[in-house]
């Protein structure tokens, strides 16, 4: 096994650590400094060797090239892919990967994706609006008549969990458990490997296996049963494929949207002019949501290099990983006018918060619905609020960035 | 004015359908296509330009 490097970062150009709290806490400054220093592709020996391209052109080129950049490992953790396979020989290798279709490559990818696409098309997702509104209103009702809230803990973190649990057919009463697992899988990527982490992974594994077995015995009207009945190349999906896809829907559907809603509310708490504009003109919320997605895109994906090669002046080696920081691409001045300015009425907005190319986030319509409704309901119920400066805003660690604590003072309610 | 979605570039972001449902629709897989042979009725030119300016994959073109 390669040597694992821990400890503070000495140089973000040659020794970055995307799993350290310092990265997400200072992300915009780190990118600006790297670009100002003439470093469009940063590197680290940590995690077995990772590259970090920062421009829209580079991110797009990699996203469009699944031959040289495989999706096998969408999350860059301490184990290299070959080491992970040694630990779990049953895991599905390329082109399927452990969590299809996000971990799949062509030609398998398109078929695995086609199974899921109809469930997430706008015409399937739009009717969920009322359900999301009810979830959001109930969360606010449950806060009671208080002046101080933590909008992340009491609001944003619950919305996507409840929506996804309902779609996949998981009991809503277990929502806290999935959220804990998601936080561990995605937030703990820089953590040392421990017995506790391993035990949590096993608990998650057992829980989902049992969930799938229950659905084999008692089919339901939900995505789990849908996947169990789905076919690929004329055959039922393998149990490992169904397991991986359900794991994916839970992991990818929860803290991503939680982060998107959280960053939006953080912006509105910090920018009273924008908040007032949206309170007075709720019809401007969808455009504002797109700008929040651009400026605070939560998700950085990753690829694995499939062959030794030179790429824009750097020597990449087979099995090196490459981060795809869509949030950095969204702040590229070649692509966006005044990218550091958050303009909630920005008209031209080709942001890539949901990725580019064949792996475009399959849940993007659902995520947008949840963000729009969550912002709309929050502003309706709390037309005036601000950050509580006596408490700390905290940000997630790892490839999904968003606030995990949002202490707000509520000034008016409706 | 006419709009056209290049189906080999469209990845189903659905921005055009959200911004200009008079001009674009999406199929069951979420892939977009232009309505009415892409002919933009008078008065909807700005919506057509908005759809173009918000497609992350640069999949939509306009012909005057």
UniProtKB/TrEMBL annotation, chain A:
Q: Which Pfam families match?
A: p450 (PF00067)
In alphabetical order, the GO MF annotations are:
heme binding; iron ion binding; monooxygenase activity; oxidoreductase activity, acting on paired donors, with incorporation or reduction of molecular oxygen
In terms of Gene3D superfamilies, this protein maps to:
Cytochrome P450
What the entry lists under InterPro entries is as follows: Cyt_P450 (IPR001128), Cyt_P450_B (IPR002397), Cyt_P450_CS (IPR017972), Cyt_P450_sf (IPR036396)
Query: What UniProt keywords are attached to this protein's entry?
Result: Heme, Iron, Metal-binding, Monooxygenase, Oxidoreductase
Q: Which family does it belong to?
A: Belongs to the cytochrome P450 family.
Name of the protein described by the UniProt record: Unannotated protein
Q: Tell me the organism.
A: freshwater metagenome
TrEMBL record, chain B:
On whether Repeat is a keyword of this UniProt record, the answer is: no
- What keywords does the record list, in alphabetical order? Electron transport, Iron, Iron-sulfur, Metal-binding, Transport
Its name, as the record gives it, is Unannotated protein
InterPro entries, per this entry? Fe-S_cluster_ET
Q: Name one GO molecular function term.
A: iron-sulfur cluster binding
**Species in which this protein is naturally found:** freshwater metagenome
Q: Where is the signal peptide?
A: none
């Amino acid at each position: 096994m390669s040597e694992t490097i821990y400890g503070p970062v000495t140089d973000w150009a040659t020794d970055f650590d995307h799993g350290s709290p310092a990265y997400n806490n200072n992300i915009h400054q780190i990118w600006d400094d790297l670009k100002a220093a003439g470093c469009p592709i940063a590197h680290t020996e940590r995690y077995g060797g990772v590259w970090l391209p920062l421009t829209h052109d580079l991110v797009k080129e990699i996203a469009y090239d699944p031959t040289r950049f495989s999706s096998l490992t969408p999350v860059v953790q301490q184990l290299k892919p070959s080491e992970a396979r040694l630990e779990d020989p049953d895991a599905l290798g390329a082109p399927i990967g452990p969590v299809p279709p996000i971990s799949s490559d062509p030609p398998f990818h398109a078929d695995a994706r086609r199974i899921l696409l109809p469930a997430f098309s706008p015409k399937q997702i739009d009717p969920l609006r009322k359900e999301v509104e009810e979830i959001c209103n109930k969360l606010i009702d449950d806060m009671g008549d208080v002046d101080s809230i933590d909008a992340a803990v009491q609001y944003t973190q619950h919305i996507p969990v409840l929506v996804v649990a309902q779609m996949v057919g998981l009991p809503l009463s277990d929502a806290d458990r999935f959220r804990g697992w998601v936080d561990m899988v995605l937030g703990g990527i820089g953590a040392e490997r421990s017995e506790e982490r391993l035990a949590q992974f096993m608990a998650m594994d057992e829980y989902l296996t049992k969930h799938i077995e229950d659905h084999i015995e008692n089919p339901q009207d939900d995505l789990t049963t849908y996947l169990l009945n789905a076919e690929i190349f004329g055959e039922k999906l393998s149990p490992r494929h169904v397991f991986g896809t359900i794991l994916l829907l839970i992991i990818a559907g929860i803290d991503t949207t939680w982060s998107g809603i959280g960053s939006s509310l953080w912006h509105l708490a910090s920018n009273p002019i924008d908040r007032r504009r949206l309170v007075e003109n709720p019809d401007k919320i969808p455009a504002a949501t797109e700008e929040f997605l651009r400026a605070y895109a939560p998700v950085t994906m990753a690829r694995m290099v499939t062959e030794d090669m030179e790429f824009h002046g750097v020597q990449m080696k087979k099995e090196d990983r490459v981060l795809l920081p869509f949030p950095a691409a969204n702040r590229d001045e070649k692509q966006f006018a005044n990218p550091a300015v958050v303009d909630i009425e920005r008209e031209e907005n080709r942001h890539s918060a949901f990725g580019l190319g064949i792996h475009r986030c399959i849940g993007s319509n659902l995520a947008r619905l949840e963000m729009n409704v969550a912002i709309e309901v929050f502003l309706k119920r709390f037309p005036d609020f601000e950050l509580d400066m006596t408490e700390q805003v905290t940000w997630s660690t790892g490839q999904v960035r968003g606030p995990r604590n949002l202490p707000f003072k509520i000034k008016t309610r409706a | 004015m006419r709009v056209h979605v290049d189906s080999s570039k469209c990845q189903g972001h659905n921005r055009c359908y959200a911004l200009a449902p008079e001009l674009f629709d999406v199929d069951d897989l979420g892939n977009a296509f232009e309505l009415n042979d892409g002919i933009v009725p008078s008065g909807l030119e700005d919506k057509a330009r908005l759809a173009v300016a918000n497609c992350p994959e640069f999949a939509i073109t306009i012909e005057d």
